[in-house]
Amino acid sequence: MVLPEPAPEARAHSERVVARIREEIDTHQGWIAFSRYMELALYAPQLGYYSAGARKLGRDGDFVTAPEISPLFGEALARQAADVLAQGFDAILEVGAGSGALAASMLAELERLERLPAQYLILELSADLRERSRDTLARRVPHLLDRVAWLNQLPPSFAGFVIGNEVLDAMPVEVIRATRTGVEQAGVTAGADGFAWSWRAAPAELAAEAMRLGLEAGYTTEIGLVARAFVRTLGAVLERGVALFVDYGFPEREYYHAQRASGTLLCHYRHRAHDDPFFLPGLQDITAHVDFSAIARAAREAGLELLGYATQASVLVNCGITELMLRTPPEDAARYLPQAAAAQKLLSPAEMGELFKAIALGRGIAVPLSGFSWGDRSGAL
Fold this sequence. Notes:
Helix content: 25-40%
Mean pLDDT: 93
Shape: globular
Strand content: 15-25%
Distance between the termini: 36 Å
CATH architecture: 3-Layer(aba) Sandwich
Order of helices and strands: HEHHHEHEHEEEEEHEHEHEEEEHEHHHE
CATH class: Alpha Beta
């Protein structure tokens, strides 16, 4: 695939990111784990893809997420949030708010439902995305902005509704491969021609996890230890409430299927997907699909319950997305048809409806979640 050339200032920025990663490699005797490379490429302060100022989301960025496709996504999830808030809660925590489109849609719908929380907290590490989300909220729901506060780490404790869209897939992953003699961990080295893959015997924890999966020799894949650790930390923070994460991925038996022997690592640059994580570091997103079985296990280890697991399509339908669409009369074709096309992207199995899943975790919640009333696949985890 021929990828677009960056502007000179963007290339110069990437060269600064490369220099930072080279420095890290030199400091560690010429080799770093791929997870550390991914962490620096995405999150190095003032340099990484999510830490610097380049536009990432939307038509002018590198990819489009569901909240940017249509406010229907956030409005539907707001109905699930409203059900949870009705159980005696008064706060929402969004992890990784991106452009702020999800927060704006949810707050607007919660206002219509007369279920506005006193606080809408946003955990966002990127200064650039903090500003962009603030601008979005100021433009779309200015009268609700005083309810919103931005955080740079999880609060020490929280009770209420937690929401995260396309958060887990952006957390650094270990890349491993099975060999006839054991398990190897992918690392990164730096040479005159740039960065390159380099393999070493995997440390004990990683090797044990890979061996548990029973991978055939030659199988290459990812293990998301950071996402699991995040869920355990969230479990320690969540006193009572629900955490809902929407992302693309599979249960374990599908994730590590023989047909996925090359893994799921994927990069996004200017709305093009490719598999080279060393292309223009700092200017592209690097992701891996989510192993939802591992997320569910990590949640249980932290004392959380699995409250539901289903496709994005079924959760949105359960939350009333079709009813929300009918707020716009079908006879008003100029407004209704674009909305219907956006809903098709969110719901169609050929688009986001099947690949994207929602997982709900919680503590102290006795009432079933409406978003999982039909199509719950928790048994697959």
